[in-house]
TrEMBL record:
<feature type="binding site">
    <location>
        <position position="508"/>
    </location>
    <ligand>
        <name>chloride</name>
    </ligand>
</feature>
<keyword id="KW-0732">Signal</keyword>
<feature type="binding site">
    <location>
        <position position="210"/>
    </location>
    <ligand>
        <name>chloride</name>
    </ligand>
</feature>
<feature type="active site" description="Proton donor 1">
    <location>
        <position position="499"/>
    </location>
</feature>
<feature type="binding site">
    <location>
        <position position="374"/>
    </location>
    <ligand>
        <name>Zn(2+) 1</name>
    </ligand>
</feature>
<dbReference type="GO" id="GO:0006508">
    <property type="term" value="P:proteolysis"/>
</dbReference>
<keyword id="KW-0479">Metal-binding</keyword>
<feature type="binding site">
    <location>
        <position position="370"/>
    </location>
    <ligand>
        <name>Zn(2+) 2</name>
    </ligand>
</feature>
<protein>
    <submittedName>
        <fullName>Zinc-dependent metallopeptidase</fullName>
    </submittedName>
</protein>
<dbReference type="GO" id="GO:0008241">
    <property type="term" value="F:peptidyl-dipeptidase activity"/>
</dbReference>
<dbReference type="GO" id="GO:0016020">
    <property type="term" value="C:membrane"/>
</dbReference>
<keyword id="KW-1015">Disulfide bond</keyword>
<feature type="binding site">
    <location>
        <position position="398"/>
    </location>
    <ligand>
        <name>Zn(2+) 2</name>
    </ligand>
</feature>
<dbReference type="GO" id="GO:0008237">
    <property type="term" value="F:metallopeptidase activity"/>
</dbReference>
<keyword id="KW-0862">Zinc</keyword>
<feature type="active site" description="Proton donor 2">
    <location>
        <position position="499"/>
    </location>
</feature>
<feature type="disulfide bond">
    <location>
        <begin position="524"/>
        <end position="536"/>
    </location>
</feature>
Length: 600
C-alpha cells in the first residue's frame, strides 16, 4: 500500500467563512477557481501536519502517539469534508476543465469523510487509530511463546505440518474479534459522512473514484473477473490435487474447497511459498530466489538498494539521502510499529520513505520493488497541483512497483545482477510461470472479495452479526477456500487482514494485478522484445523508462484512460495481457487437470 495520509490526513484553521449572503447568490467561475485554490493550499498545510503525526504513530505505537495521530487526522478530515461539502455550491457553474476536475476530486478526497456534527470526526479518527494499532500490535500464544504476525507468517510460509499451520492460522485470528464492534461503529460514521457528500454510502464513494459511474465500475470489475476466472479455476484445481497428494484426504480432500491454512500465506492471497509442494514432476527449477538471496549475503538494506538500482536503470534519479536516513527497513526490537509495508511522501516533494519489516526472501524482494514504485510515482507527480498528486487511479499506484518486479523476477535479470549464475532454458518456463501464477493469479479473487465484503457492509446488506459468515461466503465463492475448522461464534476474520482495520480500499490491488501486465506488455514492445512476455526484462531500458515517467508525471490530472493511453496506447483495463503472459501455463494446467473433478 501507499501511506494512509492521502486518505486520513490533518489540521488547519478554516479560512472559509460561514454561510453568507454571497453564498446564496449563484457563484461565478472565478469564485470556484479561487475556492479550489484556497482549499488546495489549506489541505496541503493540513497534510504536512497529519502526515508526520501518522508517521510517528506508525513508527512508535503508544497511547500518546495514537492520541496525536487521531487529533491530526480528525482535524484534517473535518477540513477536507467541509471543503467537499462547500464544493457542491459550484454544481452547475460553468467552470474551466481543471477546476471542474478539482471540484470533483475534492469530494472524493477522503476514504472515510466524517459526519458534519461536533465530535464525529474525533470519534471516527480515534476508532481508526485504535483499529490499526490493535492489528499492528496483535500477538498470540504459540508453543508457549507470544508471537507476532511476522513470526506467524514465517510458520505459514515454511511449515508443512497441518496441525501447526492450523494453530497459527487460528491464533492470528484471535487478535481480531475485539475489533468487531469498533468496526461496526466506524462503518456507521463513515457512511454518514459519505451520505453528507451525496454518496449512497462509503462503498459508492470508493467506487466513484474511477472516472465512471460507480455502478459501471462495479460491472467493470465483474467483467474483468470473468476474463480471468477460468484460469484461476484451473490453478485451484491443480494446486488442490497436489495438496491432496502431499497431505492426504483427511487434511485436504481432492474435491471441494481448499483449506485456507495450507497455501503458505496468512490470507491465502499469494501461494508462491508452497511452490515446493506443487512443482511439476520431472522438471525441476534450477534455482530458488529465497536461497539465492541468503547465499549471496543479501540483507534488508541491500534488498532496497537492489530495488533502487532497478529504477535507476530506467533513468529514474537515485533516492534522496533522506530516504535512507528516515525510512524504517527492519522491525525494531524495542518498540511497537506498523509492520505492514507502506510507502510515504511526507512533504509531497522529496521526503519519500518506506516503512517495512523487511525479511530476506523472495516475497519481500518483490514487496521492496512494490513500495519503491509508490515512491517514484509520488516523486514523478510532485509538481502537479495538490488535488492531482495521486495515481491516475489507485490501481495505477499499486501497479507501478509490481510492474518493475515483473522484470526483476526474471532469471535473465537475476543473472545480470549476479544473483543467479546460469539462466535456465525454455524447459524451465513452466516452473517459472507456475511460480508467478501462484502469486499473481491466486491473488485475483482475493483482490476482488475484500471490497465485495466491504461494499456489502457499507450498503447494509451485511449486518455486524453476519460479518464473519458473509466473509466466508465470499471466500468460498471467489477463492474456493474453507477454514481449517469451524470458526468460533465471535470470530471477525476480515479484521485479521490489514487493510480492513487499516481502512485501505482493496479493489486497487485487483486492478493493479491487471494493469501491471498491460504495462509489462507495452514496455516490452517498446523495448523491441520479441520473445515470450514472461522472459522479458526491461532492466536498463531508458527510453521506455522515460515514456513510463511521462505517464507517471500526469498524476490524477486527467481521466485515467487517457493516462493509460500515454504509455500503452490502450484506453481500457484489459486482462488479455494476463492471458498473453501466462498462455503456456494455462494450456499446461488444463492437461495436468485431466481426470480431476475441478471446481468446488
Ligand atoms: N504493499 C503491499 C500492500 O500494498 C504491502 C505488502 O503486502 O507487504 O499492502
Ligand atoms: N500488498 C497488498 C496486501 O498486502 C496486496 O498484495 O494485501
Ligand atoms: Zn502498495
Amino acid at each position: 500500500m501507499k501511506s494512509m495520509l492521502m486518505a486520513a490526513a490533518a489540521a488547519a484553521v478554516l479560512v472559509a467563512a460561514g454561510p453568507s449572503a454571497a453564498q446564496t447568490a449563484k457563484p461565478t467561475a472565478a469564485e470556484a477557481k479561487a475556492f479550489v485554490e484556497n482549499a488546495e493550499a489549506q489541505i496541503e498545510k493540513a497534510n504536512a501536519f497529519a502526515a508526520r503525526a501518522a508517521w510517528v504513530r506508525a513508527n512508535f505505537i503508544t497511547e500518546d502517539t495514537q492520541w496525536l495521530e487521531a487529533k491530526a487526522s480528525a482535524e484534517q478530515n473535518e477540513l477536507a469534508t467541509r471543503f467537499a461539502m462547500e464544493a457542491a455550491r459550484f454544481d452547475g457553474v460553468p467552470v474551466d476543465a481543471v477546476t471542474a476536475r478539482k471540484l470533483k476530486l475534492l469530494k472524493l478526497y477522503l476514504v472515510s469523510p466524517a459526519p458534519n456534527r461536533p465530535g464525529a470526526a474525533e470519534e471516527l479518527a480515534n476508532l481508526l487509530t485504535k483499529l490499526d494499532s490493535t492489528y499492528s500490535t496483535g500477538k498470540f500464544e504459540f508453543k508457549g511463546k507470544q508471537i507476532t504476525l511476522n513470526d506467524a507468517e514465517d510458520v505459514l510460509r515454511s511449515s508443512r505440518d497441518p496441525a501447526e499451520l492450523k494453530a497459527v492460522w487460528e491464533g492470528w485470528r484471535t487478535v481480531s474479534p475485539q475489533m468487531r464492534a469498533d468496526y461496526a461503529t466506524f462503518a456507521g460514521l463513515s457512511n454518514e459522512g459519505a451520505k453528507s457528500l451525496g454518496f449512497k454510502d462509503t462503498g459508492a464513494l470508493w467506487r466513484s473514484n474511477y472516472d465512471m459511474d460507480p455502478d459501471a465500475f462495479a460491472a467493470e470489475t465483474d467483467r474483468l473477473w470473468k476474463q480471468v476466472e477460468p484460469f484461476y479455476r484451473n490453478l485451484h484445481c491443480y494446486v488442490r490435487a497436489r495438496l491432496n497428494d502431499q497431505y492426504g484426504d483427511a487434511v485436504q480432500p481432492r474435491t471441494g474447497p481448499i483449506r485456507a491454512d495450507l497455501l503458505g500465506n496468512m490470507w491465502a492471497q499469494q501461494w508462491g511459498n508452497i511452490y515446493d509442494i506443487v512443482q511439476p514432476k520431472g522438471v525441476t527449477s534450477s534455482y530458488d530466489l529465497n536461497k539465492l538471496l541468503v547465499e549471496k549475503g543479501y540483507d534488508p538494506v541491500k534488498m532496497v538498494k537492489t530495488g533502487e538500482n532497478f529504477y535507476s536503470s530506467l533513468g529514474f534519479a537515485p533516492l534522496p539521502e533522506t530516504f535512507w536516513n528516515r525510512s524504517l527497513i527492519t522491525r525494531p526490537r524495542d518498540r511497537e510499529v506498523v509492520c505492514h509495508a507502506s510507502a510515504w511522501n511526507l512533504d509531497d516533494k522529496d521526503d519519500i520513505r518506506i516503512k517495512m519489516c523487511t525479511k530476506v526472501n523472495a516475497e519481500d524482494f518483490s514487496t521492496v520493488h512494490h513500495e519503491l514504485g509508490h515512491n517514484y510515482y509520488q516523486r514523478a507527480y510532485k509538481d502537479q497541483p495538490v488535488l492531482f498528486r495521486n495515481g491516475a487511479n489507485d490501481g495505477f499506484h499499486e501497479a507501478i512497483g509490481d510492474f518493475a518486479a515483473l522484470s526483476a523476477s526474471t532469471p535473465t535479470y537475476l543473472n545480470q545482477i549476479g544473483l543467479l549464475e546460469k539462466v535456465p532454458g525454455a524447459d524451465e518456463d513452466i516452473p517459472f510461470l507456475l511460480k508467478m501464477a501462484l502469486d499473481k493469479i491466486a491473488f485475483l479473487p482475493f483482490g476482488l472479495l475484500v471490497d465485495r465484503w466491504r461494499w456489502q457492509v457499507f450498503s447494509g446488506e451485511t449486518t455486524p452479526e453476519e460479518y464473519n459468515a458473509d466473509w466466508w461466503k465470499l471466500r468460498l465463492q471467489y477463492q474456493g477456500l474453507m477454514p481449517p475448522a469451524q470458526r468460533p461464534a465471535d470470530a471477525f476474520d476480515p479484521g485479521a487482514k490489514y487493510h480492513v482495520p487499516g481502512n485501505t480500499p482493496y479493489t486497487r490491488y485487483f486492478l493493479a494485478h491487471i494493469y501491471q501486465f498491460q504495462f509489462h506488455r507495452a514496455a516490452c514492445q517498446q523495448a523491441g522484445w520479441k520473445g515470450p512476455l514472461h522472459r522479458c526484462s526491461v532492466y536498463g531500458q531508458k527510453e521506455m523508462g522515460e515514456r513510463f515517467n511521462r505517464m507517471m508525471e500526469l498524476g490524477q490530472s486527467q481521466p485515467w484512460p487517457q493516462t493509460l493511453k500515454v504509455f500503452t496506447g490502450e484506453t481500457r483495463t484489459d486482462a488479455s495481457a494476463v492471458a498473453d503472459y501466462f498462455k503456456p501455463l494455462n494450456t499446461w494446467l488444463v492437461q495436468q487437470n485431466k481426470g480431476e473433478n475441478c471446481g468446488w
